[in-house]
Write a sequence for this structure.
């Protein structure tokens, strides 16, 4: 009887606290049939996180899971991964590239903070927010494409990315947080989409020495982008909104109608020429 009770208690403890296990260099837990990577053992250089661990789908990488894993050079993330905790790759100074699967919808603050060798980061379309200090001090990162569903880039997100020169912002972006691109001297010009309605303090065009030289902003006239440029003394190049640029004209003499007239006239003269040729052949 006592053994049965003890066994039952152990089963309940495993159910509620999760099963701790190892898979090669990986440490993980399984709770409610889902696996979470919690850390690693040894000094791994190349890791391939499988889509399943002990038959449970891998859905999360826990907070600080690979914190200061300086030996890590490459890592492959599984399809089906949904969440990456805060600072999970903080200080992984040897990590050269990262590709997040489309299934990832949430990444925590400081996720890649201090990944000084990171040159490429491919972000999934399911993300809506790039959090605080996400790529801070990634000094080797030279280009970034912000996915179209991103609406917010939070403070310090790309601060200190000294090699970053090419930025493509989401067409649905609404907020750029304070100091989001602070200390990015290689960024000389940036296009701010019409959707952006808030640009935080010192988020663009500033470094440790103050205002960046020859920094310019391209955006819609009368937008927050122009306001930010004027307030901070930056060059601003105005462009009409995309909808205005491609709006059809209202003139009654619109050239759109002319090809139809010419086509009608051409058909008419062709018919007349055929009739004339037919009459001549009979004569």
């Amino acid at each position: 009887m006592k053994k049965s009770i003890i066994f039952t208690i152990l089963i309940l403890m495993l159910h509620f606290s999760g099963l701790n296990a190892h898979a090669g260099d990986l440490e993980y837990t399984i709770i409610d049939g889902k696996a979470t990577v919690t850390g690693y053992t040894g000094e791994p250089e190349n890791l391939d996180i499988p889509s399943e661990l002990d038959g449970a789908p891998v859905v999360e990488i826990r907070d600080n899971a690979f914190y200061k894993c300086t030996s890590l050079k490459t890592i492959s993330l599984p399809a089906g991964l949904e969440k990456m905790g805060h600072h999970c790759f903080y200080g992984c100074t040897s990590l050269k590239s990262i590709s997040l699967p489309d299934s990832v919808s949430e990444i925590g603050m400081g996720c890649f903070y201090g990944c000084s060798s990171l040159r490429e980061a491919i972000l999934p379309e399911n993300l809506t927010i790039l959090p605080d200090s996400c790529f801070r001090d990634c000094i080797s990162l030279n280009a970034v494409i912000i996915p179209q569903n991103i609406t917010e880039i939070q403070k310090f997100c790309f601060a200190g990315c000294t090699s970053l020169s090419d930025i493509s912002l989401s067409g649905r972006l609404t907020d750029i947080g304070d100091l989001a691109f602070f200390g990015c001297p290689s960024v000389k010009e940036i296009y701010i989409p019409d959707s952006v309605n808030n640009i935080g303090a010192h988020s663009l065009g500033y470094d440790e020495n103050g205002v960046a030289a020859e920094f310019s902003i391209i955006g819609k006239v009368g937008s927050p982008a122009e306001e930010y440029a004027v307030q901070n003394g930056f060059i601003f190049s105005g462009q009409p909104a995309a909808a205005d640029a491609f709006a059809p004209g209202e003139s009654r003499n619109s050239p759109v109608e002319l090809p139809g007239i010419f086509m009608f006239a051409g058909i008419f003269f062709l018919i007349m020429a055929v009739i004339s040729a037919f009459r001549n052949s009979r004569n």
The longest helix spans residues 258-282. DSSP finds four helices and 22 strands in the chain.
